[in-house]
Amino acid sequence: MALDGIIILDNTGRPIIQSGFRSSTTAYPLLHIDAVNNALQKADRSADVDPVIYVAPYNSANPSACCHVEVGDMRFLCPISGDVDPLFAFAFLQTFIDILREYLGTVSAATLKDNFDIVYQLFEETLDAGGHPLTTYSNALRDIVIPPSLLNKLLNVTGTNFNSTINSGFGAGAAAGPFSSPLPWRKTGVRYNNNEIYFDVVEELRAIVNKNGLVTFSNVRGRIEANTKLSGTPDCSLNFTNSQVISDCALHPCVRFQRWNRDKILSFVPPDGRFTLMDYTYSPNPLPSQSQVMLAKNNVALPFVIKANIELEDSGGSFDVLLTSRYSTHALENVVAEMHLGQGAGGIRCSVSRGSGGGGFINAGGSRNLETGGASNGASWSFDSRRMVLRWEIPIVSPSSSWSLHGSFSTANRVPRPSHVIRVRFDISSHTYSALKVDQLKVVNAKESYKPYKGVRGRSSGDVEWRW
Amino acid sequence: MAPRKGENYELSVDLHSEYREKRKDAIKRVIASMTVGKDVSGLFPDVLMNMQTDDLEQKKLVYLYLMNYAKTQPELVILAVNTFVKDSDDPNPLVRALAIRTMGVLRAEKIIDYLCDPLQKCLRDENPYVRKTAALCVAKLYDLRPELVIDNGFLEQLHEMISDSNPMVVANTVAALTDIHIAASSQPSSSPNDPALFPISASVLSKLLIALNECSEWGRVAILNALARYVAQDDKESEHICERVVPQFQHVNGSVVLAAVKVIMIHMRGVRREDLIKQLVRKMAPPLVTLLSSPPEVQWVALRNINLLLQKRPDILSNEMRVFFCKYNDPLYVKVEKLDIMVRLAGDNNVDALLSELKEYASEVDVDFVRKSIKAIGQTAVKIDSAAERCVHVLLELIDTRVSYVVQEAVVVMRDIFRKYPSTYEGIIPTLCANLDELDEPEAKASLIWIIGEYANKIDNADELLGIFVDTFTEESYPVQLQTLTAVVKLFLKKPDSSQGIVQRVLNTATKDCDSPDVRDRAYIYWRLLSTDPGAAKAVVLAQRPPISIPRTTLLGEVSSLASVYHKPEETFVGKGRVGADSLQRKTDASDDRFSTQKAFQTVAAGQQAENLLDFDDTPAVEGRPSGLAATEVLSHTPAAASLLAGTSSNPLDDLVSIFGAPTAAPPSASPHDIFNGLAMNNGFSSGATGSLGSPVTQSPLVANIANVSPRSNQQQPQEDLLGLF
């Protein structure tokens, strides 16, 4: 196991900040930066660059590989050497990025530069020079790396040395010192005046619909995100009225595994703050003792239908797409439908309208890079001539309503080659596909009793590939 | 000292300020300068002054500075030793841990001498954070001065710490011991009794299993990796390990899941209870499939591993092919892996769904993906006999689209189908020939020419069609030339009356006007064969070819050092390797180790473009490795090859050339596979196939023959004839 370090590159491929690389030569991180930049340059699309790049050894050193991920307009690199599972590197990168988000709010080149001292400290605390990840539980980390809070900033401005008192006092705050907590994910001595615990049930639908309108594959993955603000060492137990609809669960380490497997009760002492309690797959028709990943496939009803009528002719084509909501109670929000029109497409003429015939009809002239058109009820379309993608946005598709996109395009080639796919993404608030319902949440606290405020919300999104 | 003006001077003034906030701010600015690469080493003494402070953050920043310049200014670092030693005794455990951690990474000789006493104390610290930090520090010390670790008894202490009450300490201790184990066993002089080795004993095992459920995800991975090395005593113990590890499948962190899968795969071999094996296999599928909801990078790693697992255990995902259907917006590398897995999962029950999906992909925009999809159709045809006809039908539909690259790829794929099912689909040959004019890629041309040559007796105007290529012979690329040459000779052997002229012409052109020695050599050989013994020529050129099947990425399971995503030889992933449970004899040869790692990385590099199933042909990739290895093995009987295998040359092809006496154009690389490539190219007369680099599919009998000939295996006619030629 050797994660050699982390390098963060900006959008031009130059390093913003990197960890110490104390066990390797100075050239080592540079080799990796070069390797990634070269690979990116060679690729047509940066998204198609292999996520693990072989880095040729320099001076007969051992060969290594570079795992990299894109975050915003930056790229995070994790060089690895020896027999390392790249997934280990990716999991660590993801964890590190999550930590940065928690500390800095947004992760960008600017925030990283502004808080380089924090980032350096995080490098030191999360990754050992020998390549072993160290402390990554945010509860424990906050004890040793103080987040750049507003309070800190104010104190710095006024120049008081109050700050250092807080710092040195931190260890003493928890009587036996940091890392003495018997639960590594939860810090000791947490106190709140208002005790609260919230759960968000978040589900995402992914589906592929074939030319005949049949769902060839669909899958709903859900997770329960928790936000706890509870004093002391609260012991929570959460059970559901319909736990049979979920399967293939992945649990936060705080959840007592045996209890869940036996009684389907989530019993846990939560970390303080935000965390993901569990991941699961929605399986509408569970069969006992069978993997449910696939059985879900034909059973999740898609919340909309598309009727696409697309005619391709010489040097162009016309399209007439009708999207109708199938839901009678919930509205689809932030609906985005995208279609790739193929190389050399242009001359887009489009109109979007609501219902059958209603609404405005606007032909937009083409600005060079982004042709756009607005229309009635906030729906709009645009064309990204760099990616050759026609994009249709509808802020709200109210229950049972239908929307249409109608227009034509031309291509430089005689034979137009659009992708035969319309990709639709959407959100639905206060809704879950599984209708997973919390039956009861008990919070028991040994030392002091309080009645926390509890809340559960649902939220859904979808990413559907509709072929025509 | 810094000059009296400029930025560094100002910083130095501020570092001496009487206000602590100002000093702290100055340190931050120093670090900032360091980040952007400015030289602030001149401020060393000024920064050092600020090391003694109650402010933990400030202390960390000073330490950060020290770590950065310790390499270049070791003589100054010694000034900090006192503070370090003092800090390692601080009442605040964070400070103690910080001091010991920093001393461990400074890598300055002089500091090391002062490290041992504080380290001794910290290993017994009451605070688990300090203990675990100290444990990792021992591994670093071993890296620099192994004798200090042994003399101070740190190893014994680490072994005791495996029983620590705190699971984090256990996990980090295991990580440290594993590091030391790897370092020690890679020493050429290491003996099996080296105290630094970390064999997993039964008592260690039970402690690891207890700690496993308690520690962080990273600790779990360290422990799981150690469990993978354990050699189970009997089937009961294997069962016990599997049962204890299975719950890790439900961890949120994918790397824990994968490490657990690895342990299960290794120890499952010791399990005798069929019901338990079934249960384990069934439980393995969902967590792997779940990983496909992750970001594309993670999906890719998961897919590569699934691909490996499927070759070991084809049953784990037998009903779940649809999960692997490609989405339009998947990155190419994900799509390619998915295609590969879909073909692996293909069976009679799902082949229709697969074909309609593949047909869909073949109409997509991305050329690479379209080609790979068409290849996948060919693979499906080769894999499932009963579906071959449907596959051919789909391919014909694709050829009908007249999109150039689709047609060309389809023709290439058709060749493999003809190879697998000889004389079954002759009816479509006219359709293929009708597209002759549209072919401009060498591989497609060569494929069609091969088909024409193979069925020369069934195609009325074969001489006419081949004549087109003979006319433009010198303008064609070498693979096409080679293929034309062979096809014309086949034509002549099948229809000697009508093709005397054309065979003369092609042999003339090939021997006189061609600048590729491969082509010339092949032409000479044919010429002599035909002139001395047409019967022998028939036996060689029209010989039966071995049947083809879908190539496997991991050939013969554990034979080769296959690195998939795992970036390690495949055997370490599913057993039998140097760290696998079956490795009863330990490899102590460091160079061997390094070699396998290196090969692993190369394989990954090569595999990224080529390793997928879809290439029957022409890619110097993993699928060729088995034959590559087979060839190497045989070759090693010859002295030249033996010296080559001893690894004296950086480019094995050079040596090969000396064996066969012909130059070659293959790319240099050190994998044994290339030796095979070299063979295939240099032998210069692959009779049947496209004359491309050797891969199992196109491997001609002659290539195999040569391999057989070298060790003087006395087999029948064609080989002996060949020997004569040499």
UniProtKB/TrEMBL annotation, chain A:
The protein, known as: Mu homology domain-containing protein
SUPFAM superfamilies membership: Second domain of Mu2 adaptin subunit (ap50) of ap2 adaptor, SNARE-like
Alphabetic keyword roster: Membrane, Protein transport, Transport
InterPro entries on file: Adaptor_comp_med_subunit, AP2_Mu_C_sf, Clathrin_mu, Longin-like_dom_sf, MHD
Classification via CDD domains: AP-3_Mu3_Cterm, AP3_Mu_N
Taxonomic source organism: Rhodocollybia butyracea
GO biological process, one term: vesicle-mediated transport
UniProt domain MHD: residue ranges: 194-468
Family: Belongs to the adaptor complexes medium subunit family.
From TrEMBL, chain B:
GO BP terms in the entry: intracellular protein transport; vesicle-mediated transport
Annotated ranges, domain Clathrin/coatomer adaptor adaptin-like N-terminal: 7-533
Gene3D superfamilies assigned to the protein according to its UniProt record, in alphabetical order: Leucine-rich Repeat Variant
GO molecular function: clathrin binding
Keywords from the UniProt entry: Membrane, Protein transport, Transport
GO cellular component: endomembrane system; membrane coat
InterPro entries per record: AP_beta, AP_complex_bsu_1_2_4, ARM-like, ARM-type_fold, Clathrin/coatomer_adapt-like_N
Chief localization: membrane
Subcellular location: Endomembrane system
Family that this chain belongs to: Belongs to the adaptor complexes large subunit family.
Family annotation (PANTHER family): ADAPTOR COMPLEX SUBUNIT BETA FAMILY MEMBER
Function: Adaptins are components of the adaptor complexes which link clathrin to receptors in coated vesicles. Clathrin-associated protein complexes are believed to interact with the cytoplasmic tails of membrane proteins, leading to their selection and concentration.
Name of the protein: AP complex subunit beta
Organism: Rhodocollybia butyracea
